[in-house]
């Protein structure tokens, strides 16, 4: 059997693209793990914030909102971009970067005290991004997989690629267990493994870097209110959000270069996160309940990579989605499907400059 498209990786990137390609031929998702979404997708901080990822990512995030909202995957939370001592200038820079594209409002100390109880002295200014939402990541990923399944997408798990060669316009893809897959187009949606998949296929050596991000769940006193906004330190020292049961999710906003694999939280990063929390607020950490880490994969310019490779015919990049792959999933899948099939960008993403994400930008 020759598939029209074989997608390597069944996380949010591969699952969303497969769903969007339903009706465009025979599609197969190839997942190395026993279940889709085991790595980055299953370890997300689960928020939708238009400014997150910078101006190159914002059009994709904004274009994804209506699709996510219509599906019931978003819950309004709001975000506070908090300036510590000496960081007020970074608020001005953020306003200048996003201009009228993202709704941002200045907050003074009085307004902050109403949003973040126990805020320490020196944290007197912030920007409010009121549109920020929580994302139900598990439901979104499951929905994409279900849409694909209903549309005839095949899913192979325990399917690690060990070789890929193109002969007569068809990719011959060898799996570690001896199975083989044939497809006219090979899509690299392998996340942290994107560089390895490209090397197997002889594609362009785009330097996709996996960076470890740590998250810790804490019990704190006083317990955070369910309405506490997402709090993002404007200088990138930490972010936090409330979880169910009065718990707190906290990250030191770390980006540690790490080989692709099943990563775990580093104890030093957990300690740094707690130290930064106590620098910003006077809450008491009652217990550290659990910690985890995931790999976020970035291209050199920190923008995603979507499009056909110049060196390897029939090889399509859908990778380097950093920490924003979930919040941009609907728009990214629409753009990716249009580029892969040669179609026109749908209306929801008609304003997105797809060329901005082309793999050829790296030469």
From TrEMBL:
<keyword id="KW-0560">Oxidoreductase</keyword>
<dbReference type="InterPro" id="IPR006076">
    <property type="entry name" value="FAD-dep_OxRdtase"/>
</dbReference>
<protein>
    <submittedName>
        <fullName>D-arginine dehydrogenase</fullName>
        <ecNumber>1.4.99.6</ecNumber>
    </submittedName>
</protein>
<dbReference type="Pfam" id="PF01266">
    <property type="entry name" value="DAO"/>
</dbReference>
<dbReference type="GO" id="GO:0005737">
    <property type="term" value="C:cytoplasm"/>
</dbReference>
<dbReference type="GO" id="GO:0016491">
    <property type="term" value="F:oxidoreductase activity"/>
</dbReference>
<feature type="domain" description="FAD dependent oxidoreductase">
    <location>
        <begin position="4"/>
        <end position="338"/>
    </location>
</feature>
<dbReference type="InterPro" id="IPR036188">
    <property type="entry name" value="FAD/NAD-bd_sf"/>
</dbReference>
